Amino acid sequence: MPYHIEDGVIRVVFKRGITQAEALNTISRLGCEAKDFTSYVSMNVIVHVPQGKEADFAERFLREPNVAIAATIHKEH
């Protein structure tokens, strides 16, 4: 089945030891909003971004020193 990028969200995983407050600060500084937080070993966040700019924002998050992974989310049609 074909996949498409889910509109308006990306997944961001912060480095180990980053607090929810630090993650929220980074997210808001980049002009985005957290949709869903999960914290196991590291902070895992679904982030709202401008629709159509998902890949651009994933790259912006990857430039942040406290971010380990930032990626678009792909769903099956």
Structure, briefly:
This protein has 2 helices and 4 strands; from the N terminus they run E-H-E-E-H-E. It is an alpha+beta fold. The chain has a single domain, classed as Alpha-Beta Plaits.
Task: Summarize the structure in words.
By secondary structure, the protein is α+β, with helices and mostly antiparallel strands. It has one domain (3-76): Phospho-2-dehydro-3-deoxyheptonate aldolase, domain 1 (Alpha-Beta Plaits, 2-Layer Sandwich). The chain is 25% helix and 45% strand. It has helices spanning 20-29, 54-62, and strands at residues 3-14, 33-39, 43-48, 67-76. The chain has a four-stranded antiparallel β-sheet.
SSE run = EHEEHE
Q: What is the tally of beta strands?
A: 4
Amino- and carboxy-terminal Cα gap: 7 Å
CATH superfamily: Phospho-2-dehydro-3-deoxyheptonate aldolase, domain 1
Major pleated sheet: 4 strands, antiparallel
The average pLDDT score comes to 91
Summed up, the domain count is 1
Please tell me how large the radius of gyration is.
12 Å
Question: What is the 3D form?
Answer: globular
Would you tell me the structural class of the helices and strands? alpha+beta
- The level 1 CATH classification is Alpha Beta
Poorly predicted regions? none
Helical proportion, percent range: 10-25%
CATH architecture assignment: 2-Layer Sandwich
So how many helices?
A: 2
How much strand content do the residues show? over 45%
Order of the strands making up the biggest sheet? 2-3-1-4
- Could you name the CATH topology? Alpha-Beta Plaits
